[in-house]
Amino acid sequence: MSGAHAAAAPQELARTAPEPDGTPAGVWSTSVRRGEDGALSVAGVDVRAIAAEHGTPAYVVDEADLRARARAFAVAFDAAFAPAEGLAGADVYYAGKAFLSVAVARWVHEEGLRIDTSTGGELAVALRAQVPGAHIGLHGNNKSAGEIAAALTHGVGRLVVDSLPEIEKVAAVAAELGVRAPVMVRVTTGVHAGGHEFIATAHEDQKFGLSLASGAARAAVDAILAHEELELVGLHSHIGSQILDLAGFEVAARAILGLRAEIAADTGVLVGEVDLGGGYGIAYTGTEGAPNAPGAVAAALADVVRRACADLGTAPPRISVEPGRSVVGPSGLTLYTVGTVKPVALDDGGSRTYVSVDGGMSDNIRPALYQADYTAALASRASRAEPVTARVVGKHCESGDIVVRHVALPGDVADGDLLAVPATGAYGRSMASNYNMVPRPPVLAVDDGTVRVLVRRETVDDLLALDLG
Ligand SMILES: *Cc1c(COP(=O)(O)O)cnc(C)c1O
């Protein structure tokens, strides 16, 4: 992956960030504008004012944009899976791992989504937001007995079981609490997807789920049906992330609906619900191809469920999906202040300008972890300077501390300028660390001309408070 980058001349790859265009398919949230003086604003608030009042780095969330994306998923899936369409309804679970705070959990729930959690911590945030347990799911390949008990105590609507031993563990906790646990089986169908392509293999060499091909998924279903303390509510499939080609979902959906028909034929139990996971891709740089709108995703999935169930001769199940990135990713941007600017000569005779910002891999690990591409734009002013091939880097003691690998920035970019990196709403703050004892940035919600702190900036005192000397 990184090899491909290294081989290409940086000039070919350095593009200027797309200008804000107000559309949901773009890299910027829909309220981002560039004003007459060249500065960016979010929901009517100038980024210079945000930086002056709250400092940088800062995650800035466009509340109306986030709410609109959540609502669009709820509306699209309701419509596409309506009984009038010959289907049995759908629920959209927001995958909270993408970013969860009490306010965001409340917003997405108000807009009609349920919430998926994968740890006791995420579950606690959803509960603090007063999301009813029945509208929460719990995932995880290694849930503790404490996490399972917390979920059952709060009436969580589904625990997605990930292994045969976990089935026994959930049954034991349910028996102890005197409740019946609603469980789904996470099935690995052999379909993996990410970006533009999907691959399908029979056997899986990864930690999640129970394999369809090996019979493990079927064994899990039989084990659940044999336990009085467990109620089999569904089958689950999640094939990957940042997926732009919907074909992988269709292959996985057919596989899982086939398993459901087989279970019905053998046991007489027609499982009520099928979860098709999340992973819908978004625009990070504007060069990846158009992301699918929620309506297009819902229509494609409804079509394959309708056809597969007709072919199999089974009544359609209720469907659920779990988008994370596509709900919050495009709604957020990160605001940084530029510090050191350093031109570096390259072997091919060109040069690259290293633009250091006041954050880095501690607030966005994705470029270092996945070679993820982002773009960046000068946010505090306009510039007519010739663009230079730039690399935006952080302040950490790590040469892989890259925020944006290749981007064209105005040649006069300088200490004190604000840079905005779009599409950082998902997996930014949620994967942030304190590497180098750097406090994590705040999450600021902007709506209709006002800024509200959702998560405050961490301080060095916060970090020292954990250190007992
Ligand atoms: C990560 C994850 C999601 C959400 O993925 P996105 O790419 O953010 O949409 C949904 N379901 C499961 C099981 C996941 O692990």
Q: How would you portray this structure in words?
A:
This protein has 469 residues and is of the alpha/beta class. It folds into two domains: 3-62 and 330-465, Lyase, Ornithine Decarboxylase, Chain A, domain 1; 81-328, TIM Barrel (Alpha-Beta Barrel), CATH 3.20.20. 30% of the residues lie in helices and 26% in strands. The chain contains 14 helices and 24 strands. The strands form four sheets. Strands 4, 17, 18, 19, 20, 21, 22, 23 and 24 form a nine-stranded mixed β-sheet that branches. The longest helix has 21 residues, at 247-267. It is globular and about 70 Å long. The site of pyridoxal-5'-phosphate (PLP) has 16 residues, from helix 12. Pyridoxal-5'-phosphate binds at residues 95, 97-98, 139, 238, 241, 277-280, 322-326, 426.
Which keywords apply here?
single chain; 469 residues; alpha/beta; Lyase, Ornithine Decarboxylase, Chain A, domain 1; TIM Barrel; 2 domains; 9-stranded mixed sheet; 8-stranded parallel beta barrel; 24 strands; disordered N terminus; binds pyridoxal-5'-phosphate
CATH topology description of the largest domain? TIM Barrel
Percentage of residues in strands: 25-35%
CATH class of the largest domain: Alpha Beta
Cα-based radius of gyration, to the nearest Å: 23 Å
Average pLDDT across residues?
Answer: 95
Bound molecules: pyridoxal-5'-phosphate
The main pleated sheet reads as: 9 strands, mixed
Instruction: Count helical runs.
Output: 14
Counted beta strands = 24
Q: What would you say the CATH architecture of the largest domain is?
A: Alpha-Beta Barrel
Measured between the Cα atoms of the first and last residue, the distance is 43 Å
Residue share in helices?
25-40%
Q: What's the domain count? A: 2
Question: pLDDT below 50 for ≥5 consecutive residues: which ranges?
Answer: 1-10
